[in-house]
Structures are given as C-alpha cells and as structure tokens.
C-alpha cells in the first residue's frame, strides 16, 4: 500500500537534493537506519517541505541558518548544494551566512563560509 506522505516526500527530496544523493542515502540504509530514512522522507520532506506556507527558497534559507546555528557543517554543505539546485544564487547564500553571523555568531559564519565556498565551487569535502 502506498503512503502519500512518503511519495510526496520522496519526490520533493529528489527535487531538492538530487537523485544521486537520495539514491545513496536509501541504498545505504540498514535494518538499523531504514526507519530513520522513512521518517525523514515522510515527515521532513513529505509533510514540512510540501506545506504551502513557504516557498522552497525560503525553507532552504531557514534550513541553512538552522544548520549554521547548530554547527552541523556536514549537513550544511549538502543543503548549500541543494540551495543552488533549487535556484538560490551564491550571492543569496552569502547573504544567508552574513545574516547568520549576527544571530548565530561570527565563528559559526566563518566555518559556514568555508563549507559554502567548497560546495559552490563543486569541491568535495576533504574530510570525507
């Protein structure tokens, strides 16, 4: 039986993150992590990212800011690439990080600029 939230989530997740990323994430799921992949696909992507109240660019900006604030730089790099994929420009991403410097802190923004520069220029993470 099909789950509409999962199907919506999978479609949006692929549109935002790209097929290659989603295919890798789903293919690497184990018995231990499969429920988490299902959870984020249904709820994060199928329920929250599909709500009509905000467009994808706004959601992307909010996501990058939250990741900067939480120091989740590995996820930030993925979401910078996603932001480019859905139409944010490098200048818009720069503005998100500059704005985050005020509310999240200069050291967080400094690290975020390094991660974003790598993602924008298409370089791979040297640490993994």
What does this structure look like?
The protein is 76% helix and 0% strand. By secondary structure, it is an all-alpha fold. Pfam families: CMD (PF02627). Residues 35-117 form the Carboxymuconolactone decarboxylase-like domain.
CATH class of the largest domain: Mainly Alpha
Order of SSEs:
HHHHHHH
Overall shape: it is: globular
Kindly provide the radius of gyration, computed on alpha-carbon positions and rounded to a whole number of angstroms. 15 Å
- What's the CATH topology name of the largest domain? AhpD-like
Query: What is the overall pLDDT average?
Result: 94
Uncertain stretches of 5 or more adjacent residues? none
Proportion of beta-strand residues: under 5%
Tag the structure with descriptive keywords:
about 130 residues; mainly alpha; AhpD-like; 2 domains; 7 helices; about 75% helix; about 0% strand
List the helices and strands and how they pair.
Layout (H helix, E strand, L loop, with lengths): L3 H14 L1 H9 L6 H15 L7 H15 L2 H13 L4 H15 L1 H16 L7
Helix pairs in contact: 1-2, 1-3, 4-5, 4-6, 5-7, 6-7
Keywords: Lyase
GO molecular function: 4-carboxymuconolactone decarboxylase activity; peroxiredoxin activity
InterPro entries: 4CMD/NDH-1_regulator, AhpD-like, CMD-like, Decarb_PcaC
Briefly, what is this?
The protein has 128 residues and is an all-alpha fold. It is built from seven helices and no strands. Helix content is 76%, strand content 0%.
């Amino acid at each position: 039986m099909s789950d509409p939230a999962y199907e919506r989530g999978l479609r949006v997740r692929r549109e935002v993150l790209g097929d290659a990323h989603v295919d890798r994430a789903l293919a690497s799921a184990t018995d231990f992590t499969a429920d988490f992949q299902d959870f984020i696909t249904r709820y994060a992507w199928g329920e929250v990212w599909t709500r009509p109240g905000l467009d994808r660019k706004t959601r992307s900006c909010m996501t990058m800011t939250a990741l900067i604030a939480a120091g989740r730089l590995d996820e930030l790099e993925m979401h910078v690439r996603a932001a480019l994929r859905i139409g944010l420009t490098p200048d818009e991403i720069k503005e998100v990080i500059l704005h985050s410097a005020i509310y999240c802190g200069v050291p967080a923004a400094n690290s975020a600029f390094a991660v974003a520069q790598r993602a924008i220029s298409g370089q791979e993470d040297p640490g993994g």
